[in-house]
User: Fold this.
Amino acid sequence: MLKTPLFFCGSSAIFDLDKFLISNPSVRIFLVTAKKSFKLCGAEEFFGKILKNYFVVNFYEFDDNPKIEDVEIGITLFESNNCNLIIAVGGGSVIDMAKLVNVGQANKRSLLSIVQKPENIVIKGATLIAIPTTAGTGSEATHFAVLYIDKVKYSVAHLNYLLPDVAVLYSPFTYSLNSYQSAITGIDAFAQSIESYWSANSTVESKVFASEAIKIILRSLPKVIFENAKDAREEMLYASYLSGKAINISKTTGAHALSYPLTSYFNIPHGHAVALTLAEWFDFNLGVSQENIEDMRGVSYVKEILLELSELIVGKESETASTVLRSFIQSIGIETKLSKLGIKESDISFLVRNINFERLNNNPVRISSEQIKEMLFRIY
Ligand SMILES: [Fe+2]
Assistant:
């Protein structure tokens, strides 16, 4: 049975955190944040007040998409200051960084040995409080963390010791995101939910989380982009958390598998990279047959869940799910052509060679390298 973080949600969430700290006055806090967005989103001023009476070390010297060298610097800083509580305030990279520093400092092994063999994680780290400032990755609700070694993406997973202990969902920290940032992070949560729903590892429980997130995102993401509506921002933060809970069980599939080399080698932000092939995957999965089925539950099961997804996504009978997905993604301002994102035709073979097969195996339908290439040419 997977654990769920204790979570505080809504306008009083941050004050619940304040109460938690007051009842633990001797904490030595390792505060993980991004360099710029911590200030821009208003969290720096906010935490400056809440944390003023505590010992705090702020770790922010790392890039987006955590690298192993950065995590090692974080571990040294944590240990040399004898910290015993981690608070991560930021997007998915910040929360993933906090998870990795925490297991690294607790397990006294080389980080590489943990990445290569997560069974080497045998000790729980400090209490970890995750406070997302984007509504997208759902990292506050998952038991895995992404990091890059020499541009190759690794996902470190541990059922018990990577999941944050507490997730605080406080939407005012997302108010300052511009429409592009809101769109790509929101689409990440959307893709996570859709991929979770059709994942070969889905369960009844994960599908409940995923379908709820899909419904919320379809109605709230456009309100965030076009109206900057505060209630929609709060809903998106909750949908992102739900998408995290869904993939915490099912993991992601094809669109995420293809996204990692686009991010790592071509600097396309994670949510944008995921959005590029989401609609294509819907069409591809519709071609499920006895020859290419990956999901143990069989062809008719996969067809049934794709139909359920279509019913969730499609408003008018005349439309197909992939058409609706494509126009939804484009309508919120996300460019979906590879050629417009600085990728050359000659890069496509390179992309195919660098796909993340770990996530591809969760896709309900098996795909060949040739079919991936065709898919990438369709969106070129
Ligand atoms: Fe994602």
